[in-house]
Design brief:
alpha+beta, 3-stranded antiparallel beta sheet, GMP Synthetase, Chain A, domain 3, two-stranded antiparallel sheet, 3 helices
Length: 132
């Protein structure tokens, strides 16, 4: 199991440490943060997009389909359900440097097989414990 360490850095800002990587997560100014980094929701959408992209790139490598410079543009909608907000939809447009021809469905299937997308399709258990 990989460790992800998250430390409060003031306000609504947190540092996230994974292996030897560090990034700052913060809420936007409209949501009470200082906009020092992406919000948790934006990171979730980025995780989906980069995971989809990695699976597509891996498939393209093995199928000899040009993919260098591929881009994914994702948008998401936030919806209020009762007293809870949630991301209700994520829409992605994928752009490859050239048409994959008859392999377009296979390229999309590769992207749909990413671990983040599969995890969101069947929610994981999240067990939290408060240590004092």
């Amino acid at each position: 199991m990989d460790l992800v360490n998250i430390k409060h850095e003031g306000g609504l800002s947190f540092s996230v440490n994974v292996r030897d990587h560090r990034l700052i997560v913060d809420m936007g100014k409209d949501d009470g943060g200082f906009d020092k980094g992406p919000s948790p929701a934006e990171l979730l959408v980025a995780a989906v997009g980069s995971c989809v992209g990695a699976h597509i790139a891996r498939y393209c490598q093995t199928a000899d389909i040009p993919h260098e410079g591929m881009e994914l543009n994702l948008t998401f909608q936030v919806e209020k359900e009762g007293n809870k907000n949630r991301i209700s939809s994520i829409v992605g447009d994928i752009s490859l440097p050239q048409d994959p021809g008859p392999r377009i469905k296979a390229v999309l299937r590769a992207g749909e097989n990413c671990i983040i997308r599969n995890t969101l399709a069947q929610c994981p258990e999240i067990d939290l414990d408060l240590e004092i």
